[in-house]
Write a structure and sequence with these properties.
Helix content: 40-55%
Number of helices: 10
Radius of gyration: 43 Å
Shape: flat
Structural class: alpha+beta
Order of helices and strands: HHHHHHHHHHEEEEEEEEE
Distance between the termini: 130 Å
Strand order of the largest sheet: 8-7-6-3-9
Number of domains: 3
Oligomer: single chain
Strand content: 5-15%
Length: 297
């Protein structure tokens, strides 16, 4: 029994030391926490005071879209020359296109910028590359008196229906370029002559059976720049001639992929004809058909 007492005392002593150690650790831990907190608060005070004395200057953004930071400048005072920009330059460009077609300014069109393309166009038309107010008015006003494609198409349609060859020839003489033909023909096709949508060439030539009258019409088309190979008319830049089957035939997508189609079916727009076959386009896809099985609308 006496041997157990020292063990109890030792146990109590160890427990007491453990409690004391825990208390000391807690105390020192608390002191350490308070010290770090004060240091942190001190640092926060220092940084705030630095902010007051040294304001932060925002950095300039590297994102600067051109349409926000560089508004288009205008410089369309007379004389207009290379480097000029603005409404007057665009008016000249619109006039050149209206008179000579989009091909005169093929890349940039009427963008209001007097650049190298416009200089080239003016030289091609034997016009000065520095435009004063008088030249400007001549160029712009000449385009305003140009033909009305829709009105001409209606006049030609009416004269074709009435077999009025003189009226047809007078209207055709108002057209001078391939672009004129294209514009009028596009309007003419909307009028459905003899129940069919036709190009101006086919519509007019089909309306006059007399060979002398046909020849007068052909000469006018030739003057505009259309080409005739003895069978059909073609024109570079024209939207093409529609082809229709005259009998049941096969349309080929590839040499190994074909589809049978019936007679009197409109296939699409001709692209080229060679060695007895015609290449045509339909909805952006190209096909081949035997030329002997089609005709042109």
């Amino acid at each position: 029994m006496e041997k157990e007492k020292p063990n109890k005392k030792k146990k109590f002593l160890l427990i007491g030391l453990g409690v004391a150690a825990t208390g000391l650790l807690s105390y020192f831990g608390w002191e350490y926490y308070q010290k770090k907190k004060k240091e942190k608060e001190g640092n926060a005070d220092d940084s705030s005071s630095d902010t007051d004395t040294q304001p932060v200057i925002p950095q300039k953004s590297t994102f600067a879209p051109k349409f926000f930071t560089q508004p288009q400048t205008r410089n369309d005072d007379f004389p207009l020359k290379k480097g000029s920009k603005g409404a007057k330059v665009k008016s000249v460009q619109d006039a050149l296109i209206a008179k000579n077609g989009k091909g005169i300014l093929p890349r940039y069109g009427a963008d209001g910028d007097f650049g190298s393309e416009m200089v080239t166009a003016l030289k091609k038309l034997n016009l000065p590359d520095t435009i004063d107010e008088t030249t400007y008015n001549v160029i712009v006003q000449s385009s305003s008196s140009s033909f009305d494609a829709g009105a001409l198409a209606k006049a030609l349609y009416k004269d074709a229906v009435n077999k009025n060859i003189n009226g047809v020839i007078n209207s055709l003489k108002k057209m001078s370029t391939k672009d004129d033909y294209t514009a009028v023909s596009n309007e003419f096709k909307k009028l459905s002559l003899r129940g069919v949508s036709q190009t101006l060439v086919n519509g007019l030539l089909g309306s006059f059976p007399d060979e002398n009258q046909k020849q007068q019409i052909r000469l006018e088309f030739s003057r505009m720049g259309l080409k005739y190979d003895g069978k059909k008319w073609s024109l570079s830049g024209l939207d093409g001639f529609k082809v229709i089957t005259t009998e049941a035939t096969t349309v080929w997508r590839t040499p190994n992929e074909g589809a049978k189609v019936p007679a009197k079916m409109i296939l699409g727009t001709e692209i080229a004809t060679s060695k007895g076959f015609t290449l045509f386009e339909n909805n952006g896809r190209k096909f081949i058909v035997k030329t002997s099985t089609i005709k042109y609308l």
